[in-house]
Amino acid sequence: MKNIDKTKPVLVTGATGYLAGWLVKRLLEDGLSVHAAVRDPEKEHKVHHLNGIASNSPGTIKYFKSDLLDEGSYAEAMEGCELVFHTASPFTSDFDNPQKELIEPAVKGTDNVLNQANKTVGVKRVVLTSSCAAIYTDAKDVHETPNNILTEDIWNTTASLDYQPYSYSKTLAEKKAWEINKDQNKWDLVTINPSLVMGPPLNPKATTSESFSLLKQLGDGTFKMGAPKIGIGLVDVRDVAEAHYQAGFTPSASGRYITSAHNTNFVELGEALEPKYGKTYPVPTKALPKWLLFLIGPYVNKSLSRKFIQNNVNIEWKADNSKIKEDLNLSFKPMQRTMEDSFQVLIENDII
Question: Could you state, in order of their start, the residue ranges of all structural domains in the chain?
């Protein structure tokens, strides 16, 4: 049970990120003092949206130059903080060397930030952005669980460096975090494990989140013949930010939290956009047959390997989100609102 003193600064790593932006906004609006750890505070286009929020909020923001792979680079940013939000981690499917581009920044970054928490006087709690990817790799894995539903007790055992290395990086990073946490008794660890995150970005032009390439494909004609019916979970970025906030300031918060609002699939994402945007954009409302995906998938997108198609297409995805609803009193936005708000931002910024 950790009570966090709100007069002390709060650290957010990777503060310019898609999710982190909404978390910083929530903290600033609550009047907190945010220590924003970023790779390059001089890059005005990366931080201008945060400055805009800060100038209209009771809270204050201060930037610190930090790098996941640079040991000790979070020391100054963490000084005086009781609460640390570690949100910085790479999320991409476009990589040449998964070990160097995904695994090392995720695992070494976690190691770097959490070992700094060990050295910094006064740190009481670390809230880590993990992922449902640390719980499962493929929708098929859900059907190998005791009740055909993902819970916080389950760990991903099927991802590897060669297959779904992003999921592997999230699994290794979260395991590393629990390992470091177990070896000390100064601070407690809470992890937020979101499914696919959608919702409007606060800095659309600089958003590189993988969610946005999927969203763009839902409207640019990529799936006009139909979408692969891939079973996934979906959650709004604003709800994920609120989950982090509550995990930080709810004294009894503990362990892992599946943060997923909807058990869904790619076709349903298209269907959610159809009423408002279907006349103007080729949003998919039907499923591509699995046999056709086997033929064309690997040519259309390198992540649509035959193994991935076999393990995810036409397979229902299901996760139990009761723990976060009960412990952190969290409620989730409807899927249609999340999808429409996200898509609207792409239109307004000429991204689609």
Answer: 10-348
Mean pLDDT for the stretch of residues 253-266: 98
The correct CATH number of 10-348 out of 3.40.50.720, 1.10.12.10, 3.40.50.12780, 2.60.120.10 is: 3.40.50.720
| Amino acid identity for residue 280 in this structure | T
Torsion of CA 67, 70, 72, 75, to 10 degrees: -10
Tens digits of residue pLDDT in 291-301: 999 998 777 77
Sequence letter at residue 119? K
Q: Where are the beta strands (DSSP E) in the chain?
A: 10-13, 33-38, 60-65, 83-86, 125-129, 188-194, 196-198, 231-236, 255-259, 262-265
pLDDT of residue 42 exceeding 90: no
Higher pLDDT, 47 or 124: 124
1 burial via Cβ count (<10 Å: 0-12, 13-18, 19+): exposed
Count CB neighbours of 275 within 10 A: 11
Q: Looking at per-residue confidence, does 102 or 243 come out higher?
A: 243
CB 168 within 8 A of CB 146: no
Bridge partners of 128, per DSSP, are 86, 191
Rg (CA), the chain: 20
Distance between CA atoms of 10 and 152, rounded to whole angstroms?
Answer: 26
Q: How far apart are the first and last CA of the chain?
A: 46
